[in-house]
C-alpha cells in the first residue's frame, strides 16, 4: 500500500499520537536526569533509547498483527524514576 492510499487525516492523527506519546513524559525525564546530575550526553540517551524502543515495538507489533499498534513510554514510570533519583544519589 503506497503513501497516497492513506488519507491525510490518518497520517496527521498518527503523527499527533506519536508526538504526544513521546513528549508526554519528556519533561519528567529531563528533570530526573538533571536532578541525578546527568551530562547532556546521558540526558540524550535517556530520551533516545525509549524512543527507539517505542519505534521498534510499534513497527514490530504492527507488522505482526497487520493493524496499527502504538506503544508509548509510561509517564507514571518516568515519575517513578524521578522519585528514585534521590535514593540513587544517596547510595553513591
TrEMBL record:
Transmembrane stretches, start-end: 12-33, 45-63
Keywords linked to the UniProt accession: Membrane, Transmembrane, Transmembrane helix
Keyword Membrane appears in the UniProt entry: yes
GO MF annotation terms: benzoate transmembrane transporter activity
Signal peptide: none
Superkingdom of this protein's organism: Bacteria
InterPro entries: Benzoate_Transporter
Any one annotated GO CC term: plasma membrane
Coiled-coil portions: none
Lyase in keyword set: no
Name of the featured protein: Putative benzoate:H+ symporter BenE
Top-level taxonomy: Bacteria, Pseudomonadati, Pseudomonadota, Betaproteobacteria, Burkholderiales
Amino acid at each position: 500500500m503506497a503513501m497516497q492510499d492513506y488519507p491525510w487525516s490518518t497520517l496527521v492523527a498518527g503523527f499527533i499520537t506519536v508526538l504526544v506519546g513521546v513528549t508526554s513524559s519528556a519533561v519528567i525525564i529531563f528533570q530526573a536526569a538533571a536532578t541525578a546530575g546527568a551530562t547532556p550526553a546521558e540526558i540524550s540517551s535517556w530520551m533516545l533509547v525509549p524512543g527507539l524502543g517505542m519505534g521498534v515495538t510499534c513497527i514490530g507489533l504492527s507488522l505482526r498483527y497487520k493493524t496499527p499498534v502504538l506503544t508509548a513510554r509510561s509517564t507514571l514510570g518516568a515519575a517513578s524514576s524521578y522519585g528514585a533519583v534521590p535514593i540513587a544519589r544517596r547510595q553513591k
